[in-house]
Design a protein that fits this description.
heterodimer, A: alpha/beta, Aspartate Aminotransferase, domain 1, Aspartate Aminotransferase, domain 2, four-stranded antiparallel beta sheet, 17 strands, globular, B: alpha+beta, Sufe protein. Chain: A, 6 helices
C-alpha cells in the first residue's frame, strides 16, 4: 500500500484547525518542532490522569506503575535506535544531552579517559546548530583544548579534503550533525567515524534532524554518543535522549548531580549509580518520556523506512517546484542525494521575514532567520533564509500551497 | 486583507528607497545593534550639536519593517532637539505596544504611523524597534561625550 500522508494527518488534531481567518493550516516547520498525534497527547495526559507518581521511589502501586511506564519508554527508545536499554538516558532536551556530554567530559579527572588539556583538540563542523557548537566552544575554553572545524562547500556539503589534518592524534572529540537543520545535507558519516576512531577520538552525533526522519541504528553507524529531541519526533516537549555506548557511559563522569543518580552518599562524598541513572539526577520528566515512547511506537508502526521515502519524494517535488521560481535560490543541495527534507531558500530582495509573514497570511507556517546556525548562514553569505521542512503528515498539496504562496509573495512585494 | 495593515505603501517605499542609509564619515557616536532572534543588524551614527540632532546615518541588513522603521526615524529626528526626539520615541514605543488599538499621532510621528499595524504582530515589534534602540544608545553615548 502506498504511503497515505493525508490519512496520517488525521491523527494530528492540530492539522485540522484553521489559521488567519479560516485558512487551512499548511504546517511546514517540523524541523523546528513536529506536531503531535492523538496517541502521544493521550499517553502524556493519561500518565497524569492515571499513573502519576515519582518513579524509582515510593512503596506504593502508583510508583510501581509510573516506574513501569517510564522504564517501558526507555525500552522503546532503545529498540528504536538498536541500542541497549541501559545506554539510553532521558534528558529534558537534545540541547541538554549535548551539554551533558560536553560538561561530563569537562568533569573528567586528570589521568582518566576523557580528560582534556591544551594538547587536545575538538573537531566540529561549520554547519552545526548552536546547540552542538557552543557547548564545545565552551568546553575548549574551559580546558584549553583547540576547537577545529570542517568547512562547508558552496553546494552545502562538508569539505572533507583536509580531514587528515583536522582529525589527528590530538583529536579527542568529533561532534557533528547527522543532517543539517538549515541545508538538509546528510553528512558522509562513515569516513569521519573511521578517521576519528583510528586516532582514538569519540564521535558525538547530533541526530535531531535524522532520528525523526529515517531509520537510525547506533550500532551500524559506529558512533559513540548521540542526541535527539522528543518534540521533533512527534513526541512531547521537555524530553530529549542522550545515548552512549555502554563502556563509555561507565567511564564518563556525571553532569548534573543530586537525587536518584547516586549509589552511596556521606556528608563529604558520593558515589554514582551505574548508567543510565548516573545521568538522571532528580525526578525526571516522566509523562514526557512516556509520551515519547508512544511517539516512537507510532512512528515504528508506520515504518521509518517508509517515512523516509515519503520525505524524499516530497523533497524532490519541492526542489523541482521551487527551482522554477524566478530569483529563488536554494541554499543547500539541489538534489535528494544524501539530503533530508529541510529546504532553505532566498527570494531575490524579499527578506525572509517578509516572505514568512506573507506565507503566514496564507496559512503556511515556515521558519525564517538564521535557524540557530549563525556561523553557517554567515559563511554562505545570507543573513537569513526561509526554510520549509516536511514530515510524514505533509502532502504535495502542502507543497503546492507553498509554491503558490512564494509566487504570491513576489507579486505582493513587487507592487 | 489584514496583511495590508502591516505592509503599507509608505513602508515598502522606505524599504525600496531607504533614507540616510550611508554611514557618515564622522560622528559623535557609532553603535552596532543586532536582533539575535532573526539576525538583523544595524550600524548607526549620530552627530549632535549641543542638544540638536545634526545627523543620523546608518547601514544594515534586515526585513522591510526594520529597514523602513530606521529610515523613517532618520527623516523624523534629524534637526530635532533631543527632548523632542524623546517625546517622539516615547510615542512610537507606546504605539508599538498598543496591540492594534491605536493609530498613532500623525502630527508627531508623521510616516511612522504607517508602522501601527506592526503592533498586531508581536514577533515583528522588535524589528520595528531595532533602529530606535540603536538611536537611543548612540544619542546617549554622543551626549555623554559632551560632558
Amino acid at each position: 500500500m502506498s504511503f497515505d500522508a493525508a490519512a496520517i494527518a488525521k491523527d494530528f488534531p492540530i492539522l485540522n484547525r484553521t489559521i488567519r481567518d479560516g485558512k487551512r493550516l499548511v504546517y511546514l516547520d517540523s524541523g523546528a518542532t513536529s506536531q503531535k498525534p492523538n496517541v502521544v497527547i493521550d499517553a502524556e495526559s493519561n500518565f497524569y490522569r492515571l499513573t502519576n507518581a515519582a518513579v524509582h521511589r515510593g512503596a506504593h502501586q502508583l510508583a510501581e506503575e509510573a516506574t513501569d511506564a517510564y522504564e517501558g519508554a526507555r525500552e522503546i527508545v532503545a529498540e528504536f535506535l538498536n541500542a541497549e536499554v541501559d545506554e539510553v538516558v532521558f534528558t529534558k532536551s537534545a540541547t541538554e544531552s549535548l551539554n551533558l556530554v560536553s560538561y561530563a567530559i569537562g568533569n573528567a579527572a586528570p589521568g582518566t579517559r576523557f580528560h582534556l588539556t591544551s594538547a587536545d583538540s575538538i573537531v566540529v563542523t561549520e554547519m552545526e546548530h548552536h546547540a552542538n557548537l557552543i557547548p564545545w566552544q565552551q568546553l575548549a575554553q574551559r580546558t584549553g583544548a583547540t576547537l577545529k572545524w570542517f568547512s562547508v562547500t558552496e553546494e552545502g556539503r562538508l569539505d572533507l579534503s583536509n580531514i587528515d589534518s583536522l582529525i589527528d592524534s590530538s583529536t579527542k572529540v568529533v561532534a557533528l550533525t547527522h543532517q543539517s537543520n538549515v541545508l538538509g545535507t546528510i553528512i558522509p558519516l562513515d569516513e569521519i567515524t573511521k578517521k576519528a576512531h583510528a586516532v582514538g577520538a569519540v564521535v558525538v552525533l547530533d541526530a535531531c534532524q535524522s532520528v525523526p526522519h529515517m531509520p537510525v541504528d547506533v550500532k551500524a553507524l559506529d558512533i559513540d554518543f548521540l542526541a535527539f529531541s522528543g518534540h521533533k519526533s512527534v513526541g512531547p516537549t521537555g524530553v530529549g535522549i542522550f545515548w552512549g555506548r555502554a563502556e563509555l557511559l561507565t567511564d564518563l563522569p556525571p553532569f548534573l548531580t543530586g537525587g536518584s543518580m547516586i549509589e552511596n552518599v556521606t556528608m563529604t562524598s558520593a558515589t554514582w549509580a551505574p548508567a543510565p541513572k548516573k545521568f538522571e539526577a532528580g525526578v525526571p520528566n516522566m509523562a514526557q518520556a512516556v509520551g515519547l515512547g508512544a511517539a516512537l511506537t507510532y512512528l515504528t508502526k508506520i515504518g521509518m523506512e517508509k517515512i523516509h521515502r515519503h520525505e524524499v519524494e516530497l523533497t524532490s517535488y519541492l526542489l523541482s517546484g521551487l527551482s522554477e521560481i524566478k530569483d529563488l535560490r536554494i541554499i543547500g543541495p539541489k538534489t535528494t542525494e544524501l539530503r533530508g527534507g529541510a529546504v532553505s531558500f532566498t527570494l531575490g530582495d524579499i527578506h525572509p521575514h517578509d516572505l514568512g509573514q506573507y506565507l503566514d497570511s496564507q496559512g503556511i507556517a515556515v521558519r525564517t532567520g538564521h535557524h540557530c546556525a549563525w556561523p553557517l548562514t554567515r559563511k554562505l553569505g545570507v543573513p537569513a533564509t526561509t526554510r520549509a521542512s516536511v514530515y510524514l503528515y505533509n502532502t504535495t498539496d502542502d507543497l503546492d500551497a507553498l509554491i503558490a504562496g512564494v509566487i504570491g509573495a513576489q507579486k505582493y512585494f513587487g507592487r | 486583507m489584514q496583511l495590508d495593515n502591516l505592509y503599507q505603501e509608505v513602508i515598502l517605499d522606505h524599504y525600496k528607497n531607504p533614507q540616510h542609509k550611508k554611514l557618515s564619515a564622522s560622528y559623535d557616536a557609532q553603535v552596532h545593534h543586532i536582533n539575535p532572534s532573526c539576525g538583523d543588524e544595524i550600524t548607526l551614527n549620530v552627530t549632535l550639536d549641543g542638544q540638536l540632532i545634526k545627523d543620523v546615518s546608518w547601514d544594515g541588513v534586515g526585513c522591510s519593517i526594520s529597514q523602513a522603521s530606521v529610515s523613517i526615524l532618520t527623516d523624523l529626528l534629524i534637526d530635532k532637539r533631543l527632548d523632542q526626539a524623546q517625546v517622539i520615541a516615547d510615542s512610537f514605543m507606546h504605539l508599538m505596544q498598543s496591540k492594534g488599538t491605536e493609530k498613532g499621532d500623525e502630527d508627531l510621528l508623521e510616516d511612522a504611523v504607517a508602522l501601527a499595524g506592526v503592533s498586531q504582530y508581536p514577533a515583528r515589534i522588535k524589528c520595528a524597534l531595532l533602529g530606535w534602540m540603536a538611536f537611543k544608545d548612540a544619542s546617549l553615548q554622543a551626549l555623554a561625550k559632551q560632558s
